[in-house]
Fold this protein.
Amino acid sequence: MTEAEIQYEYSILERSRKNPKAFGELYEKYFDRIFNYVYRQTDDEDLTADLCSQTFLIVLKNLERYEFRGLPFSAWLYKIAGNEVNKHYRKEKKSKVFSIEELRVRELIEQASESYDEEVIQRLLNYLKDLPTDMLEVLELRFFEDKDFKEIAFILDISESGAKMRTYRALDRLRKNFNLKIKYDGKE
Amino acid sequence: MSSGRIAQHRNYGELMERHERDIRLRRIVKTFIYFLIIVALLIMFVIVRRWEQKKVDGKPGTAQQSVSSEQLAVSSEQSGSKQSVAIRT
């Protein structure tokens, strides 16, 4: 995301403070992404719709308190969505679910390896099921949501070096087990 | 999930309605809290006033104050005459 885009979104937020209807543009832009992000962590459509709506409601409620820290507005949105998901699991006393779409895994493998077969995909899907939640979180944000380490650190409330370390460890495991050429910075 | 399916859940109008309802509710709660604070202060003021009144009314001799002052005047006159007598002797 370019600096100009970040500034443009911030100007929409400034306008939304006076007139909440102006927020509609950002709602339309980010609804699908936030929906998918929450859906991957709940695997329940109705629950996702509720949490998503709650996320945007919290954003509207706290617009006055929003401070620009050089990060895109979406980082704040993801952070609130993540907090809402965690709150739900704490309330229900259930353990977090991670459902990664097969299609996204296919995309990732296509980028990382020229030759792959169905067996590798199935093995990888099974492998991802056993990965710890904190590693899945960073992988999801890094490769499926395309976030940089600064944003990941902000969303997950960890340090930037912590985010890098988690990603590195998760990728190292994938490299060792599947011989994938996914680069640490995710660009290739 | 397909974007068509996600679009079924996207409803900005409903979100705005909920937001406005929330604002109204917050305003009502705020007003109610201010009202409660004012009522509590008023009750405290009335209690303190009554307590002070009771304290003043409950002091011994305050009811007979006017009578005793008259008596005091009489007795001072009497003592004055006694004093003059003593001087004379």
